[in-house]
Design brief:
The structure is a homodimer of 500-residue chains.
Chain A (H helix, E strand, L loop, with lengths): L16 H23 L5 E7 L2 H14 L5 E5 L5 H4 L5 H6 L6 E5 L2 H10 L5 H20 L3 E8 L2 H13 L1 H4 L4 H24 L6 E5 L3 H21 L19 H9 L9 H25 L3 E7 L5 H9 L7 E5 L5 H4 L5 H4 L8 E5 L8 H4 L5 H20 L3 E8 L2 H13 L9 H8 L1 H15 L6 E5 L3 H21 L1
Parallel strand pairs in A: 1-3, 1-4, 2-3, 4-5, 6-8, 6-9, 7-8, 9-10
Helix pairs in contact in A: 1-10, 2-10, 5-9, 6-17, 7-9, 11-20, 12-21, 13-21
């Protein structure tokens, strides 16, 4: 994609006063109307406002709050990260701030600027910088695929203009307070920082998340141009048909042909493994002690972990999870059971509700079911369109790799039982009054879909098991064996990370 | 209220194995059923699990997750407060964690324990301790009035038993890892800490938030007793009629008779105040500079502020707020416009959504409308019952006093215009295309309620204006005058706080 230079060396973008005065009222009406139409739409609009003109960015935020309906704009300023933020992967705070469908989000000083700053101060090695750029591109791509309209605005002030502005402020003390040290720094570093800005802009622009350079010399030109770009973005979003999310529905054809290979994934699990009672008690005890010790070390070193539990109904997830939590101080572990998404969660990208849960430094977070619902139940039941669940594999891999890069332990367990064992457990639960509630008609219906799930699990494991965030297939026909196997794996994972 | 001693010196509460074995299945069924019935109910259940038996508390949490449906229990462990938590008033993290209606919340190591610890370590002077106890009582009272069922459980282990347990752990290394330093500390401080526990329990118990002491010596007795208490709490809640929240509806009689006095509150505002254009420009400039400087100092010193803007429709809130934000770096100020509550917000106490917004150290937070909606629109329109809005005054005073005690600046502005000025502004907005959207039929309907609002505003100011969190009535018929008046008050407030 060809991209204009940030600073083409002209400063001729001006708008006469009368033209501005006659255009503004119309623009304000259009913006408000577009904003109201957006409210019932199935997507959100994200405006990233960045630029070498810091003061211009602040002014534009105030302007948009005046011209639009401030109640429906989610404005977020991203400054120096707090401790809470630093303890999570880099994009955590951006995910948390994303606008729900129907709203406009205004991000101000987002990762674009912090990337540039870090690059300028040489805080990155080449590899980390490339990794992060890659995550930015993937983030934009997934949000856009989910329907979000993304608009990146760069407010550019030519060097000569910046110089003029600082000079003027000095002479006219009334304006002086509006000038920050950052502006003075900007001027002195201008020639070194601009190429970094240009590179970042060039390398993160795409059709679905374009950058627009807006020259900021003339306020009137800047205001109206920004407003026009936002208006166009909302209107283009509204005029798309059909909205990309609305295409859910079950397709008959499996989009991946090689299902046999995948069936083998589960076929290779040796379901005959089992443990005697005495042996179990001894080993359970040993690994619980170990996990306890390791959890204390992890808390001390600030190493956090994310464990994911998936598996067939009645495979014994709950029992295993309790064996882990019982060994760890309540302070250091949290279980997040994943049920159907709430209304608020549905108004966001499906990964949003998982991002916001991520643990602070030193803690263990256990997901009882997880984001893999996208490629399991949502795929099999047709709650997600083929497009949606097909692209989820890469989205998930990118998500988990960000956790790993942040230093977290990521382990994913599939608890495997066979259909006979499952039926036996259902029957036994039905005999046990306090376990009856765990068996519903849905559970029996899901059994009819066993083969579909086998394919889905196979493809999931094949496409999302990575060296750093591996799937561990646990034979679970024998509960003692499964429990000890999981505890052992968690210990192994923690040890390997703590040894570093 | 008479209250039993924490440690009556007996340890005879035991349950034989067979009795336990036969009772447990029934209890699990009942708990699960109660939990499911609760889901469609209009209240939540909060279980505070505290005690001198730390290990017992951890075990009970695991047990409840096994016996109940973990997906619908919100378990929160409150350990050492993070930086994020320390920057907010004491009860901030508890408010954030409160269960929504229909759910059970399980708080583990809540403020009861942290109060005891602080008292034990002498971190409080007498006055701060009393203040905090008072806030606890008020918190329980408001949540209970809102329908929440509150159950405080104290797990008590007699000293002799604790000694036995620690001894046993030493001999049998298999159990040793379950013993923490805190348990050893507990033993050595036992005689000094128990009276503090007793005092806290005695002084925070009430009919709507009772404490129950559960002896923890015998696990079977403890488990079944805790389960029974929780079951009873849920069932009693379900059997109440009618649920307290369901009583909303407009009553004809004003519950406070002295309306004339209150009418005078607004009657005393001198609406003739105005500023000439030149004078306005000069003063606006002066106070914006000042506010800018003060905001930098506040950021540096970690002093945060909460500004509340209420007023008649078209009184000019937006314009004033923008004059403030324009003077402060976007990093240091945030505006929260308050619209109708979302589904999630409605599932909580009405103050919940305001608590969660509170700013970190050094920031300014501006509420464009606020919790005062409870005693304004909700009162006048009958969205809140007489009971609900009548008790809101005290709830609000307690809320704001916690902000002030935490060191925040709290200022509340009522922008006052008269009915003629309002009508003129409505008409003028209707003539301005981009302001038309700000005028709806509702606005005209509200005008019919003018006199009701005058009474409501009067009572609000009379009952919630305090020395530390005062209402400032701003004559706003003349916008320049109002803007400068507000800026001046904000400066004054910041200065007084920064001088300390």
């Amino acid at each position: 994609m060809a991209f204009p230079k940030l600073d083409p060396g002209q400063t001729d973008k001006k708008l006469p006063k009368d033209e501005y005065a006659s255009a503004v009222p119309r623009m304000r009406v259009d913006l408000i109307n577009a904003q109201y139409d957006l409210q019932s739409a199935d997507f959100s609009v994200l405006v990233n406002l960045v630029g070498d003109d810091r003061q211009g960015c602040e002014d534009v935020v105030d302007l948009l709050h005046e011209w639009m309906d401030g109640r429906y704009i989610g404005t977020h300023y991203f400054g120096d990260p707090s401790e809470e933020v630093q303890e999570r992967p880099y994009f955590w705070r951006y995910w948390r701030a994303l606008p729900p469908r129907g709203r406009v989000g205004l991000f101000f000083g987002d990762f674009a600027w912090s990337l540039i700053e870090s690059r300028f101060k040489d805080e990155f090695d080449e590899k980390s910088y490339e990794l992060r750029l890659d995550h930015v591109r993937k983030l934009y791509a997934e949000l856009a695929a989910d329907g979000m309209v993304i608009l990146n605005l760069w407010l550019h002030l030519p060097k000569a203009e910046l110089k003029k502005r600082l000079k003027k402020a000095k002479k006219k003390p009334a304006d002086e307070w509006r000038v920050h040290d950052v502006d003075r720094d900007m001027l002195s570093d201008y020639d070194r920082i601009l190429p970094i800005c240009e590179e970042m802009v060039r390398r993160t622009t795409s059709d679905s998340s374009p950058w627009h350079i807006v020259e900021s010399t003339d306020e009137r030109y800047r205001n109206l141009t920004v407003a026009k770009l936002i208006l166009d973005a909302i209107e283009n979003g509204l005029n798309r048909k059909p909205p990309p999310r609305k295409t859910a529905g079950k397709s008959a054809s499996a989009p991946v042909a090689d299902t046999d290979f995948r069936r083998d994934v589960l076929g290779s699990v040796d379901l005959s493994r089992s443990l005697e009672k005495d042996d179990y008690k001894k080993k359970l005890e040993r690994y619980q002690r170990k996990i306890h010790k390791l959890s204390l070390q992890a808390a001390k070193k600030g190493v956090s972990s994310v464990l994911v539990f998936e598996g067939w109904d009645a495979a014994g997830k709950g029992g295993i999870i309790r064996r882990i939590t019982a060994a760890i101080s309540a302070r250091d572990v949290r279980v997040v059971p994943i049920a159907s998404p709430t209304e608020e969660e549905l108004a966001h990208h499906y990964l949003w509700r998982f991002w916001r849960q991520l643990p602070p430094a030193g803690r263990m977070l256990i997901f009882d079911r997880s984001w893999y619902g996208r490629v399991l139940v949502e795929r099999v039941e047709g709650f997600a369109s083929d497009d949606e669940w097909s692209r989820a594999y890469d989205e998930i891999v990118d998500f988990e790799s960000q956790l790993v890069e942040h230093g977290m332990l990521v382990r994913k367990f599939w608890l495997h039982i066979d259909a006979d064992e499952q039926l036996a457990r259902f029957k036994s639960r039905e005999q046990t009054p306090y376990k009856k509630y765990k068996i519903t008609d849905d559970d029996y219906r899901n059994r009819d879909r066993w083969d579909d799930y086998v394919v889905a699990v196979g493809e999931m494991v094949a496409r999302t098991s990575t060296e750093q965030a591996p799937w561990i297939l646990v034979p679970a026909n024998n509960k003692p064996w499964a429990r000890v196997a999981v505890l052992k794996e968690v210990c192994k994972g923690l040890e390997s990370l703590l040894e570093r």
